[in-house]
């Protein structure tokens, strides 16, 4: 045991404790193989459900295969599930007293939120890998080569990490795992209200405005462009969809700038 | 005598309109067990949370081993263990997984954390359940794991907030044994409880708190002595109840309680009365007693007397 005295020592322990907490999430996954199976099946079900059910009725703007059009939307959807997962885990810790135990220990304080968001990143990578596998099986593929493809995945990861901090903050704010669980379905309208599954052109004006500015839409549009999938851009579109990559980066930076300080403050203050 | 290891002076804490602590003072000598008793809402948990650096007092200060709980929270955290009112372990991890994780977070090396986890599981009889997730533990096992999680670093001061609430008598006895072992090793324990026999069994000193203030302190025996012994009388003939009540009232100076027909019970003044005198007085009045006995009050009686809510409406 080492005292957290020098700034450098503190940084080192923040990192070490963060890693321990990432390890904790992995330990939890190992105890719950059901969760892994669900995580494996969920994206596959989505691909089949949306790809073949909606695909039979929806015309892709500018032509092309609907499942090729759909995959970037599903990637965006899975990316957005990040804040929900982090929120429920943080709220569970806060309501069960685990957070109190962390806070009564001589550990690096910042390690807890950083560990939790770091763990989510690993979960996210795993889910992306599964989705890529399923996507390839149903005929999706990136068409523009390695670098744009890597850029697309990098964008997803950046936005995912930013969103996981929203989850930390909301989880600390609700502090109750039942409330948090009840909030999970609220995630669905967020992702549906976008260009992930259907083009926004057909929506009524106000709805279209919301959908165009939704970061889900920006991420979907950016990945369509970078993967070279159909529906990338059609004629006159709103600014965020005309500059999707910039929009995703701006969203990520804004979310991080707002929610990291808010979450850290909430974490320090909980129960004070 | 060295300085007390836990000191609280004039602690105040409010939550909105609720004044949870109103000038709480506490002092626990090293190596002893201090039992904090109080009715629901008295402020026990609030006090423990402040002492364990989870919450800041609005006024007053507290020190653990000479370190201020607000300004030197880091040093305090290296010396304390806290088992809160609700078991604070990760439900999804195994018992061993929890201990290893917390060991690492206490900055033990991986090897030391793993070794310590096994040592503790062995010593506190949880080895058989070590590789099961906590969600499958019984309430008693969960509390025990929660307790031993606090012991990873062998803390100088251990805070236990109602460590045995909701446990069956056997599990309670096991937790008590564990606490006794720790104290034998030199740990100072501050324990809140609703069970007075628990305080009686474990505590060297007791602080009774109500409405956020300490209203009485002392050893269990001292506290019992403050309300005097109790006299129980069983009459041969229930018809003499009124006469007997008058006699006892004169002797004790308070109205006796008549528990059921032919039974009386009264608190004697702390100065004490001899049993022989009492029997003689009853005889004089023509009351035949089937049984007369003097006994020490239980801590429950002391507690009920001290925290009588009639005069202080909330
Ligand atoms: N976080 C909080 N927010 C609002 N009120 C609180 C909070 N924590 C405690 N209180 C109030 O402060 C008072 C003291 O509570 P505390 O939990 O310290 O009591 P306690 O003695 O531990 O009771 P119990 O025996 O029921 O555990 C209560 O009236 C309670 O409602
Ligand atoms: Mg309490």
From TrEMBL, chain A:
<feature type="domain" description="ABC transmembrane type-2">
    <location>
        <begin position="34"/>
        <end position="270"/>
    </location>
</feature>
<dbReference type="InterPro" id="IPR013525">
    <property type="entry name" value="ABC2_TM"/>
</dbReference>
<feature type="transmembrane region" description="Helical">
    <location>
        <begin position="36"/>
        <end position="58"/>
    </location>
</feature>
<dbReference type="Pfam" id="PF01061">
    <property type="entry name" value="ABC2_membrane"/>
</dbReference>
<comment type="similarity">
    <text>Belongs to the ABC-2 integral membrane protein family.</text>
</comment>
<feature type="transmembrane region" description="Helical">
    <location>
        <begin position="152"/>
        <end position="172"/>
    </location>
</feature>
<keyword id="KW-1133">Transmembrane helix</keyword>
<keyword id="KW-0813">Transport</keyword>
<keyword id="KW-0046">Antibiotic resistance</keyword>
<dbReference type="GO" id="GO:0046677">
    <property type="term" value="P:response to antibiotic"/>
</dbReference>
<dbReference type="InterPro" id="IPR047817">
    <property type="entry name" value="ABC2_TM_bact-type"/>
</dbReference>
<dbReference type="InterPro" id="IPR000412">
    <property type="entry name" value="ABC_2_transport"/>
</dbReference>
<feature type="transmembrane region" description="Helical">
    <location>
        <begin position="70"/>
        <end position="92"/>
    </location>
</feature>
<keyword id="KW-0472">Membrane</keyword>
<protein>
    <recommendedName>
        <fullName>Transport permease protein</fullName>
    </recommendedName>
</protein>
<feature type="transmembrane region" description="Helical">
    <location>
        <begin position="113"/>
        <end position="140"/>
    </location>
</feature>
<keyword id="KW-1003">Cell membrane</keyword>
<dbReference type="InterPro" id="IPR051784">
    <property type="entry name" value="Nod_factor_ABC_transporter"/>
</dbReference>
<feature type="transmembrane region" description="Helical">
    <location>
        <begin position="248"/>
        <end position="268"/>
    </location>
</feature>
<dbReference type="GO" id="GO:0043190">
    <property type="term" value="C:ATP-binding cassette (ABC) transporter complex"/>
</dbReference>
<keyword id="KW-0812">Transmembrane</keyword>
<dbReference type="GO" id="GO:0140359">
    <property type="term" value="F:ABC-type transporter activity"/>
</dbReference>
From TrEMBL, chain B:
<dbReference type="InterPro" id="IPR003439">
    <property type="entry name" value="ABC_transporter-like_ATP-bd"/>
</dbReference>
<dbReference type="GO" id="GO:0005524">
    <property type="term" value="F:ATP binding"/>
</dbReference>
<keyword id="KW-0046">Antibiotic resistance</keyword>
<dbReference type="InterPro" id="IPR050763">
    <property type="entry name" value="ABC_transporter_ATP-binding"/>
</dbReference>
<keyword id="KW-0813">Transport</keyword>
<dbReference type="GO" id="GO:0016887">
    <property type="term" value="F:ATP hydrolysis activity"/>
</dbReference>
<dbReference type="GO" id="GO:0005886">
    <property type="term" value="C:plasma membrane"/>
</dbReference>
<dbReference type="Pfam" id="PF00005">
    <property type="entry name" value="ABC_tran"/>
</dbReference>
<dbReference type="InterPro" id="IPR017871">
    <property type="entry name" value="ABC_transporter-like_CS"/>
</dbReference>
<dbReference type="GO" id="GO:0046677">
    <property type="term" value="P:response to antibiotic"/>
</dbReference>
<keyword id="KW-0547">Nucleotide-binding</keyword>
<dbReference type="GO" id="GO:1900753">
    <property type="term" value="P:doxorubicin transport"/>
</dbReference>
<dbReference type="GO" id="GO:0043215">
    <property type="term" value="P:daunorubicin transport"/>
</dbReference>
<keyword id="KW-0067">ATP-binding</keyword>
<dbReference type="InterPro" id="IPR003593">
    <property type="entry name" value="AAA+_ATPase"/>
</dbReference>
<keyword id="KW-0472">Membrane</keyword>
<protein>
    <submittedName>
        <fullName>ATP-binding cassette domain-containing protein</fullName>
    </submittedName>
</protein>
<dbReference type="InterPro" id="IPR027417">
    <property type="entry name" value="P-loop_NTPase"/>
</dbReference>
<keyword id="KW-1278">Translocase</keyword>
<keyword id="KW-1003">Cell membrane</keyword>
<comment type="similarity">
    <text>Belongs to the ABC transporter superfamily. Drug exporter-1 (DrugE1) (TC 3.A.1.105) family.</text>
</comment>
<dbReference type="InterPro" id="IPR005894">
    <property type="entry name" value="DrrA"/>
</dbReference>
């Amino acid at each position: 045991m080492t005292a957290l005295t020098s700034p450098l020592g503190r940084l080192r322990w923040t990192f070490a404790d963060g890693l321990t907490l990432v390890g904790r999430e992995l330990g939890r996954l190992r105890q719950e193989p059901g969760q892994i199976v669900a995580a494996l099946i969920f994206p596959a079900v989505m691909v089949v459900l949306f790809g073949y059910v909606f695909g039979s009725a929806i015309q892709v703007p500018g032509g092309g295969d609907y499942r090729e059009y759909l995959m970037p939307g599903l990637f965006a959807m899975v990316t957005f599930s990040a804040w929900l997962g982090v929120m429920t885990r943080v709220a569970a810790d806060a309501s069960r007293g685990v957070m109190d135990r962390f806070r009564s220990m001589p550990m690096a304080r910042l390690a807890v939120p950083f560990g939790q968001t770091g763990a989510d990143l690993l979960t996210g990578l795993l889910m992306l890998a599964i989705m890529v596998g399923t996507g390839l099986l149903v005929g999706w593929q990136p068409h523009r080569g390695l670098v744009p493809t890597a850029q697309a995945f990098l964008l997803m990861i950046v936005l995912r990490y930013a969103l996981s901090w929203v989850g930390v903050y909301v989880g600390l704010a609700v502090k109750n795992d039942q409330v948090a669980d009840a909030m999970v379905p609220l995630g669905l309208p967020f992702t549906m209200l976008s260009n992930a599954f259907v083009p926004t052109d057909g929506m009524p004006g106000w709805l279209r405005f919301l959908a165009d500015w939704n970061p889900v839409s920006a991420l979907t549009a950016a990945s369509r462009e970078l993967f070279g999938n159909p529906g990338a851009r059609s004629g006159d579109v709103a600014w965020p969809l005309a500059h999707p990559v910039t929009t995703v980066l701006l969203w990520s930076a804004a979310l991080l700038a707002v929610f990291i300080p808010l979450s850290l403050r909430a974490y320090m203050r909980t129960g004070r | 005598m060295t300085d007390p290891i836990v000191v609280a002076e004039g602690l105040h804490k409010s939550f909105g309109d609720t004044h949870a602590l109103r000038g709480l003072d506490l002092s626990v000598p090293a190596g002893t067990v201090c039992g904090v008793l109080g009715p629901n809402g008295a402020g026990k948990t609030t006090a423990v949370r402040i002492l364990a650096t989870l919450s800041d007092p609005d006024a007053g200060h507290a020190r653990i081993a000479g370190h201020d709980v607000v300004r030197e929270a880091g040093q305090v955290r290296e010396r304390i263990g806290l088992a809160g009112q609700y078991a604070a372990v990760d439900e999804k991890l195994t018992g061993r997984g929890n201990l290893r994780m917390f060991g690492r977070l206490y900055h033990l090396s991986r090897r030391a954390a793993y070794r310590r986890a096994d040592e503790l599981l062995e010593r506190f009889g949880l080895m058989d359940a070590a590789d099961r997730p906590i969600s499958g533990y019984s309430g008693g096992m969960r509390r025990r794991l929660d307790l031993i999680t606090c012991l990873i670093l062998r803390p100088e001061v251990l805070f236990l907030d109602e460590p045995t609430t909701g446990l069956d008598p056997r599990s309670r006895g096991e937790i008590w044994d564990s606490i006794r072992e720790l104290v034998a090793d030199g740990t100072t324990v501050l324990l809140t409880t609703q069970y007075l026999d628990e305080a009686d069994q474990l505590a060297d000193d007791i602080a009774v708190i109500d409405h956020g203030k300490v209203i009485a302190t002392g050893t269990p025996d001292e506290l019992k002595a403050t309300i005097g012994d109790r006299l129980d009388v069983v009459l041969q003939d229930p018809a003499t109840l009124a006469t007997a009540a008058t006699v006892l009232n004169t002797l004790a100076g308070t109205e006796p309680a008549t528990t059921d027909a032919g039974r009386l019970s009264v608190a004697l003044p702390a100065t004490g009365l001899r049993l022989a005198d009492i029997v003689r007085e009853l005889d004089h009045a023509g009351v035949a007693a089937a049984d007369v006995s003097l006994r020490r009050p239980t801590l429950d009686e002391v507690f009920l007397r001290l925290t009588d809510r009639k005069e202080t409406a909330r």
